[in-house]
Amino acid sequence: MFENVAEHLDEAVRLAERCPEKYQIPCFQALIRVLAQSDSPSPQSGHSNDLDRSTGNHATGSVNRIGEATVSPSNGSYTSAGLDGQQTTGERGAIFLDQHQLPGAAISRVYHLDGNSYRIIVKDLKEKTNSKKQVKLALLLGVGGLLAGGQPVFSKERLIEACREYGAYDAPNFASHMKKQRDMFIAQGNEWSLTVPAQQRAAEAIKELAS
Questions:
Q1: Which of 20, 67, 130, 139 is least surrounded by CB atoms within 10 angstroms?
Q2: Could you tell me the CATH number of the domain that includes residue 158?
Q3: Structural domain total, the chain
């Protein structure tokens, strides 16, 4: 699974970039869903035993390995390998982890995931200026929203709270820091969503912070 996604990822990005800016993320996500669905293996009679042995499937409670994530056929939920049993990601989160080759161990060093909620737990953002800290926190919050809720979205209030927690809240320049990063953050009312390039940057940031 996901071979088709990897093969056509660049094309999906190009197609999404042709959409109006505010629709680029939904367009990209829709394309990825279509690719992932077309890549799903269809059941074949006479080979169920071989499939069970190769993927670890049994009648109940079975899981399929997908890179660093596992999927439970009974409920369609994903659990990242290396995370405890309470930390799960949705389908889009699992695709993100697979695309960027992010192991569960790296995620667990940066986030605490609990059902549909998450918290950034890294101690050091490895940035010196408030503006860079704010941008990195915004990237991490976007991925947190993707892993916990299926959308790379975060609110202004959540970002302000995170900046205050890390001593990076610069009220006079808060809005301008975000406006300077229009290639990464799309404003949607009182929220921002991550663009495709921002998700790539976020994956790199997670790897850096987890190292």
A1: 20
A2: 1.10.10
A3: 1
